[in-house]
Each structure stands twice: as structure tokens, then as C-alpha cells.
Write a structure and sequence with these properties.
305 residues; alpha/beta; Ribosomal Protein S5, domain 2; lpxc deacetylase, domain 1; 2 domains; 5-stranded mixed β-sheet; 23% helix; globular
Length: 305
């Protein structure tokens, strides 16, 4: 049987929000089975708890935000991506600011923290969302779809009018090991020419070469260069994993995206939830051995402390 998971102990990280520019302390605590992932602001009196769920997503301008108004928590996607990568279903998260720290612009720092903290199995079976039929959404020439598959596969294509990026495509088959080695270290990125406009919009106040890949009109200007030749599309996959984790279950389905972003990912999640015929929720205890192997579950369990 494959069990739900939480953290082995509490852990704390501190960093700067890439958009707010504000320093924030984030604490994660173990949570019981069937809790889900719960966020709460501690810098605001009587702030509401917000469950990490697609229906609780607010603004999606350059990040994924949970909630709206004073209690909102911005830029949750990299942390959620790392938690999904380790199969963590249940955790309480407190933060004393409006935005999850960006760390180095990837989920690599959160992966390191999770490995050091340890993961603990709980006494309840995991549940999976198994996709039964195709669902597709479109928006202004971009699109995303999900279709049946025995495991989670993400086929992502991005297109940017820049000589370093151009058109990149990556097909990623999920396992914890694949996530750690192929996806987690891929950083967010942006164009130098867009910096002033984004700052006027109140964004990237905390952005720097330490937490993003920055490109001028011809090249990457970070001294260390790229971590992967196609780091840009790998980061898109990282974001996609974080955003679709908000469905609330681990997925058995193939996601294909073309020039997608946080908004479109959330639209896809909402359409899935509004189309009950397209999925079923299956307990891991009822999965066949073949399906468990296809879902890469043995590799995930091997990383449990």
C-alpha cells in the first residue's frame, strides 16, 4: 500500500519575495492524513487558513496566488512543485509576509530542505486522480490539455522571440528522482528590457541575478550561464507541476501545454474539476502492481527517511 505523506519534523526557511521584495519567514509543520496543504499568514491578525486548491487561486499575473485581498499568499508554485515532487500530501505552512520566498528562482532550495527534514508516511492510503477522457482549454493562442495516461507525463512547448530560447519542447515523465535531477534546479527567467515595465506594475521588486535567469536582447547575462541547455522549458514544467498539484491529488494523466502560463494552468484545473466524467479518484490501495510501477511509486517510497 502507498501511504499519504507529511514532513518528519517542522522546518523554517527565510528569503525574499521576488515580486514584493519583502523578506519573509516560512515555517512548515507535519500535518495529519487528509489535511491537505494549508497556508496561513502570521503577520496579519485573524488571517484565514487557505487550502492549496485550484478553486482558491486568485490572481495569476506572473505567479500563482492563493486567496485574495489581505490574506493572499503569492508565488506558491515553486514550493508546491517541490512538495508534489516528494509526494507530500499534508503540511501546515505559516508565513509572516505576502509572498513565498523565491530562493534561487527554482524549487531546488525547497528540495534540499525537504531532503534534510525528511518525509514521513502516514496511516492513510494515498488517493490519485486518474484521467479518463481528454479535457482542453485555450486562451489567446495558447492551449493546454490533459488526457489519459498510466502515469504523470508533461509535454511542454514554449516559444519566445529570443535567440537563446526560440522554441523549446521537453517531455517529462514524472518520478521523484526525475523531478529532482531534471526539473527542480530550473530557474525562472525574464527579459532585461521588461524590467522597468514590470516594476511599474508592482512586480519583481525583489528580482535579481541571484534568483532568476536574465536575458538581454542577445544572451543570458548571468555570469554562471544556464544549468541546462533548455532550462527555460524545464522551468515551465516545474511551474506546471506546482499549478496542477492544486487539483488536490497526485495525477495519472498526460498534460500537454503550448505557450501556457499560470492562468491557463488554473483554467485547465478548474475545467477538470467541473467535468466529473473526465476523472475518477482512486485509492492507492486499489491500484494494480502494473499501475503502481507506471506511476513510479516504488521510486518515491525509496526516498522516505
Amino acid at each position: 500500500m502507498i501511504y499519504q505523506r507529511t514532513l518528519a519534523k517542522e522546518v523554517e526557511v527565510t528569503g525574499i519575495g521576488i515580486h514584493s521584495g519583502r523578506k519573509a519567514k516560512l515555517k512548515m509543520y507535519p500535518a495529519p492524513a487528509n489535511t491537505g496543504i494549508i497556508f496561513q499568514r502570521t503577520d496579519i491578525a485573524d488571517a484565514s487558513q487557505i487550502k492549496a486548491h485550484a478553486k482558491n487561486v486568485g490572481p495569476t499575473n506572473n505567479n500563482t496566488t492563493l486567496g485574495e485581498g489581505r490574506d493572499a499568499i503569492h508565488t506558491v508554485e515553486h514550493l508546491l512543485s517541490a512538495l508534489y515532487g516528494f509526494g507530500v500530501d499534508n503540511v501546515f505552512i505559516e508565513i509572516d509576509g505576502p509572498e513565498v520566498p523565491i530562493m534561487d528562482g527554482s524549487s531546488g532550495s525547497f528540495v534540499f530542505v525537504l531532503k534534510e527534514t525528511g518525509i514521513e508516511n502516514l496511516n492513510q492510503s494515498k488517493k490519485f486522480m486518474v484521467i479518463l477522457e481528454e479535457v482542453e482549454v485555450e486562451h489567446n493562442g495558447t492551449w493546454a490539455k490533459i488526457e489519459p495516461s498510466k502515469n504523470l507525463v508533461i509535454d511542454s512547448t514554449i516559444v519566445f522571440a529570443h535567440p537563446t530560447i526560440n522554441k523549446q519542447r521537453e517531455i517529462f515523465e514524472f518520478s521523484c528522482e526525475n523531478y529532482i535531477h531534471s526539473i527542480s534546479r530550473a530557474r525562472t527567467f525574464g527579459m532585461l528590457r521588461d524590467v522597468d515595465a514590470l516594476k511599474r506594475m508592482g512586480l519583481i521588486k525583489g528580482g535579481s541575478l541571484d534568483n532568476a535567469i536574465v536575458l538581454d536582447d542577445y544572451k543570458v547575462i548571468n555570469a554562471e550561464g544556464l544549468r541546462f541547455r533548455d532550462e527555460f522549458v524545464r522551468h515551465k514544467i516545474l511551474d506546471t507541476i506546482g499549478d496542477v498539484s492544486l487539483l488536490g491529488y497526485e495525477l495519472a494523466g498526460k498534460i500537454t501545454t503550448y505557450k501556457s502560463g499560470h492562468y491557463l494552468h488554473n483554467v485547465l484545473c478548474r475545467k477538470i474539476l467541473e467535468t466529473p466524467s473526465c476523472y475518477e479518484i482512486v485509492s492507492a490501495s486499489s491500484l494494480t502492481q502494473e499501475t503502481r510501477e507506471a506511476l513510479k511509486l516504488p521510486q518515491m517510497v525509496a526516498l522516505t527517511n
